[in-house]
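Structure, all three chains, one model.
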Amino acid sequence: MSERRTILLEVRDVSKHFGGIYALNGASLALESGEVHALIGPNGAGKTTLIHVLSGALTADAGQVIFNGNDLAWRAMHERVALGLARSYQITNLFSRLTVLDNVTMAVQSRVRDWGSSFSFWKPFSLDSAIVDEAQDLLDQVSLTGLAGRRACQLSHGEQRCLEVALVLATKPKLLLLDEPMAGMGPEESVRMVELIENLARRVTMLLVEHDMDAVFRLADRISVLVGGRVIASGAPAAIRADHEVRRAYLGDAQ
Amino acid sequence: MGLYASSPRRRIAAAMTLVALLALPWLMQSLDQGFYVSLASRVLIFALAATSLNLVIGFGGMISFGHAAFFGAGAYTVAILAESGVVSAALAWPLALAVAALLALLIGAISLRTRGVYFIMITLAFAQMVFYLVVSLKSWGGDDGLLLLRRSTFGSLDLKDDTTFYFVVLATLALVLLALDRLAHSRFGRVIQSIRENETRMEALGYPVFSYKLVCFVIGGALAGLAGALLVNQSGLASPNLLHWMQSGTLMVMIVIGGVGSVFGGVVGAVLLLLCEEFFVEISPHWQIGLGLLLLAVVLWAPLGIAGLFGWGRSRE
Amino acid sequence: MTQLILEQALNGLQFGLMLFLLAAGLTLVFGIMDMINLAHGSLYMVGAYLAAAVTQASGSFMVGIGTAMLVTALLGALLEVSLLRRLYARDHLAQVLATFALILIANEVVRMIWGAQPMLLNAPEALSGPVSLAGFFYPAYRLLLIGVGVLVAGLLYLLVSHTRLGMWVRAGASNREMTEALGVNVRLLFTAVFAAGAALCALAGAMLGPLLAVQVGMGESILILAFVVIVIGGIGSIRGALVGSLMVGLVDTLGRAALPSLLREFLSPEVASSLGPALASILIYVLMAAILFWRPEGLFPARG
């Protein structure tokens, strides 16, 4: 963790309702730069809705989201990515018919600040070797080098989750929103993913939504608990473990 | 269907076809079948129009059902300019392209706010709007269309000569295909193909998806306008039929038969369809039943088109 | 002047209600199966031809309409079971192409059987005259169309909002997988919906036959209007289809009647007489664009 505790992301009283049901009801949250912040809560607590609101897939009905000093209201999804906010998907969402390498090069190519926009109609992409090199590098980091030529749909579930992480990393985010990266994984694959996230934690701030409590308590610097669309507690893992309200509302039920 | 990659084999086939097409007028004249040079021009112009639609549907994944509007806009622009005395191709053709591009920008900017079935219906409806607008304007010939009394002029080239005109058409098509092949392998081409594959993911990676789609839509529309400008010169008539939605459907049939998302798919489809038409109309006035059945068969059993059947599809495998 | 406007408004209402007969079936097909069906217009055409042929043969308009609805419904069911069902899982391009192929085939088959000339379908003698309506005369046959349209719209409303069948249909339109999970036989349900939609097409085709010409190609022009209706109303919504139909019917009819004279107030007669029809012909598309701009999902989106 960094010494200077700057706030990277601040969520203030965000609400979102669908019909008459409040998925988020005045949720507030602050993420410090450099930390791994886990967001836990029972099913239907609003975790995925919050990720959607942060990434720009949904617009909040009320409240504010400040990222790195920028108010995110009305910023489209792609503008948020340009600011350094990237998300992964709970259900694997890849370019399934493209090769693994093409998946990652598309993600690397998206960084306008490094390569300019992609409104380039004539020059063959094969000359952009820097993009391909970086993509190869990312595949190394998530241990998929040998599978670069496969189509994404031919990978195992665990490999697809790793590719998902590589895609998000390729945008060089300041903040990574990981939506249940371990969903549907076997024990071995989970171990591999935990190691991967631990490695990443040194480089990027993360908001981690996860059901696997072992992983959460191992990875998180701080934990926030979302129940009924509100954050009822936020703090270090030990404090959360001891918190009465949390035990009653959530951990007690889960165990 | 991954990203498009042209194989050396396909490039050799394209080069050989080009040589054959260059020799065609000479061959036809020595067989005393000069009429076929004009037919060949027509086929190549439709190949250009179908190719422009393939950029939008096959590469961009936008199922536009209103492409005839841009095709017709190009034709009418040239005919209207000719009425007011502008016959220079150097002026009229780029203007036709620009008018079609502007129309595509307007229609695209509204239609691309929607997806799926909505997009199909809306592009269709807007194209019909253009059709009804043109038909109801008596000064543009109404139902009868506008006659183009003289072909465009192009420097010292004599476009009135069918063979010269044929070579101009062939050169235009070859240049467009070359550009499309470059585009398919460029960063822009990769972006629009990836949007076709997974639009939400592209948005989540930080691409302004709407802008990319709109630019692709406008380029497709502009090229269709160019095809229209050529066609009115070939046929001598800017007819409302060019704007009719059956025309959009026919262009779509061409690319599906030829291969969606393949650089040469539009050419293959246009050649096959128009030559079949030429041939079968002689045999039976009800040949469209056959066409319909063929189309059903292609959709149900050969989704990659005729090109796919022969392994000319876009797949790398 | 008021009389003229009133008469045109009734014409618009009548046309809108007939459009609704087409749009109702079509919007459910789009909504439930997420499938685009261009051949809906062909069912309308086939219905009109059948009605004309049977009426000529039997001498009874009622027999003609009844037979046309029945046979077209059967044709629709057959089409759904044999072909369209294979297309639900395919992409929209495949659906467009396959149903486009059906249009080509249907047009040619009709031309083979009944020839290229338009066919004559006369309204019953008794209804051919005008009736007096609060100070002006209005064709009795058009009044009948309004009556039939209102009746069908009312019946559809009762069916969709007050019966179990209707509940399934609504559920299917808003979330198909969920409906299947609840144990509804969506396949059978859809064949039934499709057949009913085909019958309504035939009804519209037969009823409009005496007013518009019964000819090849009649299905396509009205199909596109039905698309505009559905886009305005929102895919999968019967209520949206009704509102959209009435809007399109009224705007189109009143626009054509009033715009040229309205323009003459501001512009020179020559400009007005050339611009008027042109503007009137694009009015409904402008309406559609405007609605889309504010509500890209249409006025009553069925999908939540």
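The two ends of chain B are 9 Å apart (CA to CA).
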